[in-house]
Specification:
This protein is mostly helical and 154 residues long. It is 62% helix and 4% strand. It has three helices and two strands; from the N terminus they run ααββα. A two-stranded antiparallel sheet has the order 1-2. A hairpin with a 6-residue loop joins β1 and β2. The longest helix is centred in the first third of the chain and has 57 residues. It is elongated, with a radius of gyration of 34 Å.
Length: 154
């Protein structure tokens, strides 16, 4: 009977050692995977920094090889700026050039820093007298000219 208990004890001890080794192995694998992920993030961050540097350096005169990418980035920046301007218009605010806070378009000075606000010029419609579909703060030159002509004819 002691033999059976010795065999059971030996089996449990050996199994415990195997489980311990496997646990250490899993831990080592997890640590290495975490280090690999950190290194990959570092590469991505450095690629981002390098890309930003290259864009700034070559945006005014890009090489043929990267011109399409540079122009795409520039177009995206311009598109974002237009959309941000539209957001400000929809919200009825202007952005202070000094502190960056938003102020109602009716204000002449920033409520946060007191700087005189620069107000955007209203957009001008380019319908050239055709079917005009101006909305919001857009000035239709053709409509103004038509109104002036109508006034003169009366």
């Amino acid at each position: 009977m002691n033999d059976i208990f010795e065999k059971i004890g030996k089996t449990i001890t050996e199994t415990g050692k195997v489980v311990g080794e496997k646990t250490k192995q899993v831990g080592d694998i997890a640590k290495l995977n975490a280090k690999i992920i950190a290194a990959e993030h570092s590469i991505s961050d450095n690629y981002f920094i390098l890309g930003k540097f290259c864009y700034k350096k070559f945006k005014d005169s890009p090489d043929e090889e990267i011109a399409e990418v540079i122009n795409g980035i520039t177009a995206s920046f311009e598109s974002i700026a237009e959309m941000k301007a539209q957001l400000l218009s929809i919200k009825g605010v202007v952005k202070c050039q000094s502190c960056g806070s938003e102020a109602p378009v009716e204000n002449d000075f920033c409520g946060k820093c007191g700087t005189k606000l620069v107000k955007p010029e209203p957009a001008v419609c380019e319908c050239e007298g055709g079917a005009c579909e101006t909305e919001g703060d857009v000035i239709c030159v053709a409509s103004d000219e038509e109104i002036a002509e109508d006034t003169v004819q009366e």
